[in-house]
Fold:
Amino acid sequence: MLLRDIERVFDPWREFERIERELRRMEKEMDRLLAEVGFGVREEYPPVNLWTNEEGAIVTVELPGVEPEDVDITVVGRRLTLKGTRKPLASDGVRFHLRERWDGDFTRSIELPFRVEPAKVEAKYRNGILYITLPRAEEEKPKKITVQTS
Structure:
C-alpha cells in the first residue's frame, strides 16, 4: 500500500508526459508566431514515407533537383540519417520573379521502429524519389513460437 501511495505522488513518467505536452504546445505557439511574421509553418525536409513489414522497412524520400551523388545515407542503431545538397538551378545574372524551391544543404534523421542490417541497406534513385530498403536485423524479426502439447 505504501509503495502505491508513493507512486501516485511521484510518478516520473507522468512528469515526462507533462514535459512532452508542454514542448508540443510551445512548438505550436512558435509555428503560429512564425506564420504571423511571414515565415510560414516549419516543415521537415525532405518529405519522407516509411513502410514496415516483418522483413524490414522501405523509406521513400522526395528529392527533386538533388543529384544522387549529393546525398549521404547513414544508419546507426535505429537512426537513419540523410544529408545532402540541392545545387542552385539558376546561373548568375538571373532575376527571380517567383522562388518557392530553395537550394542548399539539408539533414533529416528518422528513428526507425527496429534495428536494421546496415550492411544490407540498399538505396535507389528514380524520378526524383530515393527508395531505401532497410532489412530488419535477424534478432528483431518476429519469432513464431510452436505450442507443444503434452
The chain has two domains: 2-12+15-36, 43-140. The chain is about 20% helix and 30% strand. The domain at 43-140 is CATH 2.60.40.790 (Immunoglobulin-like). The helical segments are 2-9, 12-36.
